[in-house]
Amino acid sequence: MKLDTISTFLVMAAVSVVSALPLQNSALNPHATCPANILSCSLGADNVDSCCLPTYGLVVLSQQWYSGLGPREEFTMHGLWPDTCSGDQGPWNGCDPGRIYDDVEMRLQKYLQDDPGTSSAFFKNMTTYWSSYNDDNNKFWSHEWSKHGTCVSTIEPQCFSPKVPNKDVYTYFSSALALRSQHNIYQALAAKKIYPGSNPTVSSMQDAIEAQFGVKAEINCTCGVLSEIMLYFHVKNADQYEIIAPHSHGDCPDIISYPVKSGSLSPPPHCHKRTTPPTTTSPSGSIPSGRQTGPCTTTGAMVCVDPGISNQYSKCNQGLWVLNQCRSGLLCYSDTTTAAHCA
Ligand SMILES: *[C@@H]1O[C@H](CO)[C@@H](O)[C@H](O)[C@H]1NC(C)=O
Ligand SMILES: *[C@@H]1O[C@H](CO)[C@@H](O)[C@H](O)[C@H]1NC(C)=O
Fold first, then answer.
1. Average pLDDT along the chain
2. Hey, whose CA ends up nearest to atom 2 of ligand 1?
């Protein structure tokens, strides 16, 4: 290494300690004219080429905590979401109809085969840290890509030279995983002795996150149980993320449950707020719950045997109640006295 290369390296290393770490697997942007160090959502960002700076300049890294999903001592990925600078989400159906895919798993595998520079550890990391709670990684990844990945302007195909099929998809997921591994929430909490199996205050969790990353996060719950932690970023130099204060502190109560991840997959807790009164047109009067037997009149009616606890439900099938079961890992939840669903 020549001396000037070394000193450039040292300067860059010093800069990256105080600002954003350059991401691994970064998109090598062919636009030589990218102005350096302009931050997305700052004054002047508007005039910068969309391959140099994301047009959706606020990026949210969302990591989730679900029992049975992923390693016991790791948060797993929900997504990396490009938002408008004021915090609004991109279009619900993504930003590029031509790149809406339903086969992202295959595209990633194909890309990894074609590019000898990629590591097989990447795919393992996808299945470990970005797994789906309903067991369909391809569907989960395809959704995240189509809705969010297509809105990342810096990885549009024309930003790569030469153009390589599916490099956009690969770059989206590899950058997101790299950002996740640089922002290990489990470790941030553990550093302040906040461990699963406890009931921490949200403010103690915020303090732990701030101690590690310099800013607070958006912490969300479902029925008082920790579900998701979101970190907010601006971007510079195409793919360097600078963490910023979150736009919201989340929706958790003051004291929450940070559950131990058990071995079995349990769905996010549901707390159904009844919006419609219990129906009075149930097949045989009002049916609270419990196993139903004998004749029934409303074909298709479903009743949980033990809502939220068991996966069994009774279903009215051609005039008779029959016992059914939600598929493995799911539980039965009652919506009304004669409608239930598995989650
Ligand atoms: C896989 O994940 C680990 C842990 O986050 C990380 O240290 C490693 O660099 C990742 N490897 C690849 C190829 O993404
Ligand atoms: C988190 O909670 C906020 C309310 O503070 C809500 O607006 C947001 O949609 C939630 N985010 C997720 C990912 O559920």
1. 84
2. 125
